User: Fold this.
Amino acid sequence: AQTVTQSQPEMSVQEAETVTLSCTYDTSENNYYLFWYKQPPSRQMILVIRQEAYKQQNATENRFSVNFQKAAKSFSLKISDSQLGDTAMYFCAFMNLNNDMRFGAGTRLTVKP
Amino acid sequence: NAGVTQTPKFQVLKTGQSMTLQCAQDMNHEYMSWYRQDPGMGLRLIHYSVGAGITDQGEVPNGYNVSRSTTEDFPLRLLSAAPSQTSVYFCASSYGGRGANVLTFGAGSRLTVL
Assistant:
């Protein structure tokens, strides 16, 4: 079974600085998708970024980018120019082609003014 | 645009009672799924469906039943609620499964079983 590990339960960053959230996963499959979701206090799950495993190029979405290391099974999220609105829980997630989706336990990020 | 609608938002049950969490989407999405979120843990997949008449088990299916009689609706049934089922439940949908399309999540339903 696939597992997703987020080793940083909590992190903080000063406004305007850069922070990296770590995620590792375990799978024997070659094709799959990886995601970062944001969950603010409103509890709504919001997709931040998505990466297809067959694409070597790292995905980027404005201030958010990933460092995808397939051989190492690592999928970290970098947030540049952190904003107060980035304060939230961040979940790393894995989905295989059989729709088996697994989430990490989350990292609580606090952006300090 | 309604998106994914979950009802009720809050529910308190006694042990042994049954209830159904409703999930409806108006986006003609083929793929629908249910997750539970417990403190200190990420979301865990309970059941999912890739189309009307098709359902499958996820990571934690025990104690839950689902059916998919229409494309729009994917109810989650608790036949005999247990305190271990106290959690926040999320429904999500997408055009197709397999991660190729972005999941749209509902707002969540908080269930407490006493």
